Amino acid sequence: MILEKTEILEITCDGKSDEDIKKLSFAADVIRRGGTVCFPTETVYGLGANALDEAAVGDIFKAKGRPQDNPLIIHLDCLENADKYCKAKENVHLDAISCFFPGPITAVLEKRENVPDVVTAKLKSVGVRVPVHPVANAFLKLCGVPVAAPSANISGKPSPTDARHVIEDLFGKVDVIISAGRSDVGLESTIVSLVTTPPTLLRPGGISYEDLCEKLGEVAVSNAVLSEMKPGDTASAPGMKYKHYAPKASVFLVHGAEDDVVSFLSHKQKNENCAIIGFSEDKDLLCKKNFFDLGSIDNPSEHAHRVFAHLRATDAIEGLEKVYVHITGDKSGINLAVFNRLLKASAYHVIDLTEEK
Ligand code: TXA
Ligand code: MG
Fold first, then answer.
1. Whether the CB of 44 sits within 6 Å of ligand 1
2. pLDDT of amino acid 241
3. Cβ distance 127 to 115 under 8 Å?
4. Mean of the pLDDT values across residues 84-108?
5. CB 276 within 8 Å of CB 269
6. Could you say which of 191, 196, 323, 337 has the lowest number of CB atoms within 10 Å?
7. How far apart are CA 277 and CA 290, in angstroms?
8. Cα separation of 102 and 78, whole Å?
9. Centre of ligand 1 from the C-alpha of residue 51, in Å
10. Which residues surround ligand 2, an ion (CB under 5 A)?
11. 41 lines ligand 1 (CB under 6 A)
12. According to the model, what pLDDT value does residue 110 have?
């Protein structure tokens, strides 16, 4: 840290008022001086430092307790600046998906020499993201340097979708926390590697697999998206091999016909110290105690928006042993991203009631 204590800066007008601009300029100055700043994006909050300053990037790993071999992505205010740090202009795939920038997507491209090894964990590629969130964009413009940033949570915990979560995890460990409400998407960006042929989906997110296929034609899907990495497997997205998104209690995913799922969950509520993360449709049929509502079963964007906050909230329940999450099993659109995060949060514990019949 370069400041004596963590400064929390409340942004109230999307970074547009004089007061907001003053606060964001202060935060940008902290970045240029080698400090760490947590900032909102449309996906989740990020924990940023100047990507070109090795010591500052080192402080990100320390604050999060993140393994050094898990690379960071860099954040820019516009895609036009990407070519300074990676081979962007000559990549035809990037041109094909440029319509998704700025937005909830990260492109992995061949890096240039100026990006330090500490950012990319010595990989020859770097992830580039241009957030569309107005506060992130204003902040990055003021920084004038690329900002390396992972999600602003302690490693292994659910990603932060609200400044409260960042304060919970990182107060006292970072210089500045920019507070600007809840993240819209609620899940981290889609990561697509453009250094492979065909391009490879490494992590599903707000820009769906179908969206990518429409622009790129063929897109491979990394084995890390839906399967468990075994010791010795090489993950194309290194972060996928680590324990992720997990609350303290053990998480189980439950899948089946609505009636079967409700009777299964109701039985668990009577016999176990558990919490349920389910759909609004389940709510009236179950006991309301320790029930967390993901929204209507037909509204997957809402599931994405709420799921991390719910997983995190279960940590506050005294003595909780298990969390059961109702899943649809649908893998289309943003459902794939929600399913991917829940698989990792549950360490792949799926209870399939259709199989048990
Ligand atoms: O939405 C997001 O992407 C958020 C916000 C803050 O921008 N950031 C984020 O960063 O989720 P992080 O570090 O929590 O996740 C980035 C993932 C990690 O799993 C990492 O292993 C992978 O991206 N990654 C980074 N650089 C890579 C590279 N060169 N090749 C493959 N995977 C890479
Ligand atoms: Mg993360």
1. yes
2. 60
3. no
4. 97
5. yes
6. 196
7. 8
8. 7
9. 14
10. 150-151
11. yes
12. 97
CB 176 within 8 A of CB 27: yes
User: Which residues, 6 or more positions from 197, have their beta carbon under 8 angstroms from its beta carbon?
Assistant: none
**Ligand 1 centroid to residue 319 C-alpha, Å:** 33
| 354 alpha carbon – ligand 2 mean position (Å) | 33
The whole-angstrom separation of Cα 296 and Cα 265 is: 17
310-315 own/partner pairs: CB under 8 Å, 24+ apart: 310/277, 311/158, 311/245, 311/246, 311/247, 311/251, 311/277, 311/345, 312/157, 312/158, 312/165, 312/247, 314/247, 314/248, 314/249, 314/275, 314/277, 314/290, 315/247, 315/248, 315/249
Name the band, by pLDDT with cuts 50, 70 and 90, for residue 244.
Answer: confident
Query: Over the range 150-168, which residues count as b (16 or more CB within 10 Å of their CB) and which as e?
Result: bbbbebebbbbbbbebbbb
Separation of 242 CA from ligand 1 center, angstroms? Answer: 12
Judge whether residue 230 has pLDDT over 80: no
Percent of the chain scoring above 90 in pLDDT:
90
The 10s digit of each residue's pLDDT in 29-74 is 999 999 999 999 999 999 999 999 999 999 999 999 999 999 999 9
- DSSP strands (E only) in 31-175: 37-39, 46-50, 73-75, 105-110, 125-129, 147-148
**Residue 116: cis peptide before it, omega within 30 degrees of 0:** no
Peptide bond into 198 cis (omega under 30): yes
Which tokens hold the place of 91?
């990549």
Residue with CA closest to ligand 1 atom 3 = 189
* Distance between CA atoms of residues 62 and 139, nearest Å: 23
